[in-house]
Amino acid sequence: MVSFHIEAASRALLILLLPATALAASLPSYLDAKPPAFFLAGDSTTAIIGGWGRGLLAPLIEPAWGINFGLSGATTESFQARGYWANVTSHVKRTRRRMMSM
């Protein structure tokens, strides 16, 4: 008789825990947690000297960090032609978070 109550209690507990387990499994888990990173790309309005880029990155608190790729006189065409855009995107790819969902 006691074993029947233990089995019934175990089943009831299992029924209660299954939804919680399913919910937890559906939440993303970070495989490699990386700090927030900001990559600024633009012309003189973003550049280190005279632009707003430095002001945006200055108040970041570690472990957050950023790089200002702003370049005075840059246009979309020149930014791409000189390889600056490829440099920005390579930094983004290296620091992107990988997420896994089960």
| Arithmetic mean pLDDT | 78
Our measurement of the CA-to-CA distance between the termini, rounded to an integer number of angstroms, reads 39 Å
Described by strand count, sense and barrel closure, the largest sheet is:
2 strands, antiparallel
The total of helices stands at: 4
Largest sheet: spatial strand order: 1-4
**Backbone shape:** elongated
Q: Decide which structural class fits the backbone.
A: alpha+beta
Order of helices and strands: HEEHEHHE
Low-confidence stretches: none
What is the helical fraction, as a range of percent? 40-55%
What's the number of extended β-strand segments? 4
Q: Give the DSSP E fraction (strand runs of 2 or more residues).
A: 5-15%
The value of Rg in angstroms is 25 Å
Summarize the structure.
It is built from 4 helices and 4 strands. It is of the alpha+beta class and 102 residues long.
Detailed description of the structure:
This protein is α+β, with helices and mostly antiparallel strands and 102 residues long. Helices cover 47% and strands 12% of the residues. The protein is built from 4 helices and 4 strands, in the order αββαβααβ. It has helices at 2-26, 53-57, 76-81, 84-95; strands spanning 29-30, 37-40, 65-68, 99-100. It has a two-stranded antiparallel sheet with strand order 1-4. The protein has a two-stranded parallel sheet with strand order 2-3. It starts with a helix and ends with a strand. InterPro entries: SGNH_hydro_sf (IPR036514). Residues 1-24 form the signal peptide.
